[in-house]
Design goal:
Layout: H1 2-14, H2 21-41, H3 43-68, H4 73-139, H5 172-202, H6 204-215, H7 220-259, H8 264-274, H9 281-285, H10 287-296, H11 301-326, H12 334-348, H13 350-369, H14 374-380, H15 388-398, H16 401-411, H17 417-438, H18 443-459, H19 482-489, E1 513-517, H20 521-536, E2 541-544, E3 564-569, H21 577-589, E4 594-599, H22 606-616, E5 619-620, H23 623-644
Parallel strand pairs: 1-2, 1-3, 3-4, 4-5
Helix pairs in contact: 3-4, 3-5, 3-7, 3-13, 4-5, 4-8, 4-10, 6-7, 7-8, 7-11, 7-13, 10-11, 12-13, 13-14, 15-16, 15-17, 16-18, 17-20, 18-20, 20-23
Length: 645
């Protein structure tokens, strides 16, 4: 009875329509719109909370240091907060004093600037206006008689009277009220930020555990390591950025003091804060000091020195100091930094512009450690969106061999040539072979890919198949992480080939090894890589495309001087009937040659693989192993020749 009841329900479950592809996209779009709306509508609450979170990242090392010297948790957090509050209030007092000093000399600066503007106008626009006036006077008609128009009394419809409404000056109570309103808002925000920072620092472990439960409770060990690593990286980045910007502000303030620009401390602080704005912050901060420099000095010397101070210090900090402090990258792509600055300014205004880079970095770190948010790292991070294998395949599909060559040059700084061919080029060919099996890669596209890859092989001919020496840290970003580079350094070198004098006569020709493409243009590309590697290892080889070993063209193949034939095959799934036929055809044409089969497909089934191995006696799964097999075959031929002689 239960089976009879369960059967209809199961059949109904089977006929339910699958989820439409657009439903997931619509849900993602809806969630994005809701999140953006919440960020905008709740900005009065979210801005203090965000500032508190960033402040807690900055103060966390100080609180941890106090804990290590046996200060209890609560006093260590309070001391860190008090230190931050004292620093903020001190900076506020300095800014207030600098603004007051600046206001005293503003009339004089204004007069000097107006005089310079008048001088510029007279020397440039003034002369142009005089010229236009003189030219216009030649073509204007004669002026009318002065008594042609009668004067109209004021106050008529033709000449109305002007009425001016004057607002009475504010009372003392109104002045106090306006000042208090302007002060209470930032003070309230500051107090809220400090209070939230206290609770974040006190409940840091509890917040971490809640995030672990939310994002990765199934793998506590990995998630805990990821969260701790993310917290350390963010704290280090924010502290480093704060130190660099503070140093920049000190340099600007000191330079302006010696140049003679008024209120140098104020403009140093402005430069420090403005540098949190990516790319354009420094030059925005330089606008007012340049204007003041023009007002202080009647000549232009102070202005030029001020301009030189900003335009020299910023490139030094950005191109020398920051790469040394951060490494070669902060983890953000340049496009994402610009887009993030526009987005957060639109959502939160000027404070969003200052927080754009730190907030974007937090999102990228979350994307790198939380699987559900991985799309943030793809969109905003500086990591390549495609692996080197996928990138090479995409470049070949797009017909862009120059980009593929540039990528190969970067990888070959850490990889030997054979390992690049095995781990990158052959795997990209495997992706192409998969698309061929699915019927989505046409024959014409395969030919274009073959030609592009053979061109890439020719471009890389200057590289030797040796492990490259470790490059210096300042030479550029490493192509491989340290773990992979240590693995590369432990690779066993390929055995050296025998001396030319010890080789039998059949191996002494110009091309004793024949690299044959098995069935498709993709096999030709793999055979070209193998031929280059064999030549570099002392066994001259020549390439024979698959079209040259067909039933109709095999008779034109020159058998002279061929000691070994290597058949490259990317598609080894299913029955090896084609390879069996090709091998029989080559054995009939080259009866004195040995044979090696290179199966480059990574998912070759074991049964066909054993059958193909039985046909040739030597099978390789990588180019490096195939080179080793060919070298061993050359040594075996030397031994047989010596035994026969």
């Amino acid at each position: 009875m239960s089976d009879q009841i369960a059967t209809p329900s199961s059949s109904r479950a089977q006929v339910l329509p699958p989820e439409l592809p657009g439903v997931s996209s619509l849900l993602t779009l809806t969630v994005s719109v809701v999140v953006i709306a919440a960020l905008y509508l709740a900005r009065e609450v979210l801005i203090p909370v965000t500032l508190a979170g960033l402040l807690s990242f900055v103060l966390a090392p100080l609180a941890s240091l106090l804990r290590r010297i046996h200060v209890p948790r609560v006093p260590s957090v309070l001391l860190a907060i008090i230190t931050a509050l004292a620093l903020i209030l001190s900076l506020g007092m300095v800014i207030e004093q600098q603004i007051a000093d600046l206001a005293v000399g503003l009339p004089q600066y204004e007069t000097t600037i107006e005089a310079k503007v008048d001088t510029l106008r007279r020397t440039t626009l003034g002369r142009l206006e005089e010229l236009m006036t003189q030219l216009g006077g030649r073509f204007d008609p004669a002026p009318a008689h002065p008594h042609a128009r009668s004067a109209r009394p004021a106050g008529t419809a033709q000449n109305p009277m002007t009425v001016q409404v004057e607002t009475p000056p504010p009372t003392a109570l109104q002045l106090v009220q306006s000042v208090l309103i302007q002060l209470l808002s930032p003070l309230g925000t500051l107090v809220l930020v400090l209070i939230v920072s206290v609770f974040i620092l006190l409940q840091k472990e509890d917040l971490r555990d809640r995030l672990i439960r939310l994002f990765g409770s199934t793998d506590l060990h990995r998630t805990t390591l990821a969260m701790n690593d993310a917290g350390r990286r963010l704290s280090k980045y924010f502290l480093t950025q704060l130190a660099i910007n503070a140093t920049f502000g000190c340099i600007i303030g000191t330079g302006l003091f010696f140049i003679g620009v008024p209120s140098p401390v104020l403009w140093g602080l402005v430069a420090m804060l403005a540098r949190f704005v990516p790319y354009a912050g420094t030059f925005i901060a330089a606008a007012v000091p340049l204007l003041l420099a023009a007002g202080v000095d009647p000549s232009w010397g102070t202005t030029f020195w001020t301009m030189a101070l900003y335009f020299v210090t910023e490139p030094v900090m950005g191109q020398v100091i920051e790469p040394f402090a951060y490494g070669h990258s902060t983890g953000l792509s340049p496009v994402s930094v610009v887009i993030a600055a526009i987005f957060w300014t639109w959502i939160w205004g000027p404070i969003g512009l200052l927080l754009a880079t730190p907030l974007t970095l937090c999102l990228v770190v979350l994307g790198r450690h939380v699987k559900r948010l991985e799309f943030l790292d793809v969109l905003l991070g500086d990591r390549p969106a495609l692996t080197p294998i996928e990138s090479l395949y995409q470049r070949m599909l797009a017909g862009d061999p120059d980009e593929a060559a540039a990528q190969a040059e970067a990888l070959l700084r850490d990889l030997p040539l054979s390992l690049y061919y095995d781990d990158v080029a052959l795997r990209s060919l495997q992706l192409a072979a998969t698309d061929v099996a699915r019927g989505v890669l046409a024959r014409e596209r395969q030919v274009l890919m073959r030609d592009a890859l053979i061109g890439l092989v020719e471009d890389l001919d200057s590289h030797e198949d040796v492990v490259p020496p470790p490059h210096r840290a300042d030479d550029g970003p490493a192509a491989l992480p340290m773990a992979e580079r240590s693995t590369v350094s432990r690779l066993q070198p390929v055995r050296l080939p025998p001396d030319a004098g010890a080789l039998p006569p059949l191996w002494r020709g110009a091309g004793p090894v024949l690299c044959v493409g098995g069935r498709s243009p993709l096999d030709d590309a793999a055979a070209a890589m193998l031929a280059q590697l064999l030549t570099k290892h002392g066994l001259p080889a020549r390439l024979v495309p698959h079209d040259a070993v067909t039933r109709a063209a095999i008779a034109t193949l020159d058998p002279a001087g061929v000691a070994l034939v290597v058949i490259s095959y990317m598609e080894a799934t299913g029955s090896p009937a084609h390879l069996r036929t090709l091998l029989r055809r080559l054995q009939q044409r080259l009866p004195a040659a040995g044979f090696v089969l290179g199966l480059w497909a990574g998912d070759t089934p074991p049964e066909p693989g054993r059958e193909l191995h039985a046909l040739t006696g030597a099978t390789a799964r990588s180019l490096r192993d195939c080179v080793a097999l060919c070298v061993d075959a050359a040594h075996a031929a030397c031994l047989q020749s010596a035994a026969a002689g």
